[in-house]
Amino acid sequence: MKKxxxxxxxxxxxxxxxxxxxxxxxxxxxxxxxxxxxxxxINESGWWYEPLSGEKSKVNRDDFSITDNGAKxxxxxxxxxxxxxxxxxxxxxxxxDMLHLPYTSCDAATSALTFNKRYTVAVAxxxxxxxxxxxxxxxxxxxxxxxxTKQLQLPVFVKPNNGGSSIGMSKVNEKEAxxxxxxxxxxxxxxVLVEEFIGGREFTIGVxxxxxxxxxxxxxxxxxxxxxxxxxAKYQGRSEEITPAQLETTxxxxxxxxxxxxxxxxxxxxxxxxxxxxxxxKQQPFMLEVNTVPGQSEASVxxxxxxxxxxxxxxxxxxxxxxxxx
Length: 326
Prior knowledge:
326 residues; alpha+beta; Rossmann fold; D-amino Acid Aminotransferase, Chain A, domain 1; Dna Ligase, domain 1; 3 domains; six-stranded antiparallel β-sheet; five-stranded mixed β-sheet; 10 helices; 31% helix; globular
């Protein structure tokens, strides 16, 4: 009998637009010979089941069930495609844990931790992973630009501490631009991370757990036409993504080892994308951040990496679902 899978999309943040694009790619590539897929949209107006035909209906939040053609449907697993809250920050994971429903992402604790960029790099650094020097700022406790520049060397990146897709992020080369960058970031979040710039080559690496163990996908090098890999570069064609990246053997091994180490240290599950800068002078990778529900849209790198590995997306999503069920 086919397993019943809830494809959960939407979300309560500005990243919802990316979530819907990811859900299209994923939905089009789930093996319907193995799984019955039901699209669930969680948004500001409620939790909705959206059948291919007919009117949408509310999800029963008591047990996360739906009614389809007059019959009650209970799900075997959740295929998460929500970027940002509540699908990437541990909220839904905790809810599904209480219902004993398996899902295709990291658990509640890891999701909550990795959604906080500062705490992620702190834990990674404690485990011996190289990270950039940074400051963690809070809206309720203002810190002057003078204090920031005393502790960090320009240029710096200023970004919301929680969230993704580079929304609200700025690169600051001059002290005079710091206030505007902080204001921009604080519009997106009550916490902001200010991080020293590391010069080098930028890479992003997909990692997922498979029945054969932890697998590292082919590495992608990011070459942006903007000053940094911002929202426009990610989603509006302002970057080149080279998959697989052209790498010397030692550099490739270092990046793969670092990605696998991050995945294990943070107790990740499902498919995760980890961003790195490789400092060519120091000859070592620096971890930037971890995305526990990485983009799956046509513009995203994970589908590129899966194809570069020689798998079809249908094979890949089947493996991800089966790992959650296991």
